[in-house]
């Protein structure tokens, strides 16, 4: 959903409850708070709220003092954030208040969770029948407790329009940057990423972070080959040519590549080409066939097919949605599962 045309900053309310995890709790204020327009004006206003405006215990050895009462802050919220919580430390009364608040949030607002915050969204029934994600270490428990949710344990985040969920910890950074890019365009999102010294986007899903054996020979890495390939996306890269560059057999290269990235070389290569195409669609006016050629996706028909498979929209629709000019048009559009 695109931002409504307005002169005031987009209002973000971050909910704090006992057991909140400090790192994930701080992500929205840091990322959204760094977004500025060309004149330096803040594009977001971030407020922290608790159920009773009293100090909240974190899962560490300190408390935080929210600035507002949730029932008051929610009235003007454009985006509501439920950060990660230590599930064993949740206060039932606070949970009930949050669930009721989420169910009656302002019309037209969107809601996002970070990590285990998805449990509160699911408890409120907001994820029933919808795609969602959470930290990989909690997916089995989540699936048992909320069978109506279409849980995807492999992705960093899911954007289902007005309800968004992210995987563990730093995936909250990925989701905030995604929303900033959606709301304000790539230029602003990239500036925020540079200021916060984080990657503007990360390749692969959270499968790459699930506990797995360390490769036997750590010196034999595919990192340099991935960098080499990224500079040649418009060429005819093959599995054999990448293995040759890495001085490995195809079989060894494929196994090592999956160990390091959580995906196969061909899947990774296609994703890089799609991501490059998205950046070109966001930042240039190149015709669709030229974007396809520059990214190694071949024809405009191939680009359309890949983009629709990856994110559910055509190149022209994506360009209209994500270029800054479209962001200021006042249109409301829905961006599907990423």
Protein architecture, described:
It is a single chain. The protein has helices spanning 22-33, 70-73, 92-103, 118-123, 139-145, 171-184, 186-196, 223-230, 239-245, 250-261, 265-283, 288-295, 300-311, 315-322, 324-327; strands at 10-16, 44-50, 56-57, 63-64, 68-69, 79-82, 110-114, 131-132, 150-151, 157-159, 163-166. The protein has 338 residues and is α/β, with parallel strands linked by helices. It has 3 domains: 10-196, Rossmann fold; 212-262; 267-327, Homeodomain-like (Arc Repressor Mutant, subunit A, Orthogonal Bundle). The strands form 3 sheets. It has a 7-stranded mixed beta sheet. Strands 3-4 form a two-stranded antiparallel sheet. Helix 9 packs across helix 10 (250-261) and helix 11 (265-283) crosses helix 13 (300-311). The longest helix has 19 residues, at 265-283. It is globular and about 60 Å long.
What does the overall shape look like? globular
What's the mean pLDDT score? 87
Secondary-structure-based class equals alpha/beta
Q: Quote the distance from N terminus to C terminus.
A: 14 Å
Order of helices and strands: EHEEEEHEHEHEHEEEHHHHHHHHHH
User: CATH homologous superfamily of the largest domain, by name?
Assistant: Class I glutamine amidotransferase (GATase) domain
Helix content: 40-55%
- Poorly predicted runs of 5 or more residues: 1-5, 212-218, 325-338
Task: Please report the first level of CATH classification, the CATH class of the largest domain.
Answer: Alpha Beta
Strand content: 5-15%
Number of separate strands: 11
**CATH 2nd-level architecture of the largest domain:** 3-Layer(aba) Sandwich
The number of distinct structural domains comes to: 3
Radius of gyration computed on alpha carbons:
21 Å
CATH topology of the largest domain: Rossmann fold
The largest pleated sheet is described as:
7 strands, mixed
Total number of helices: 15
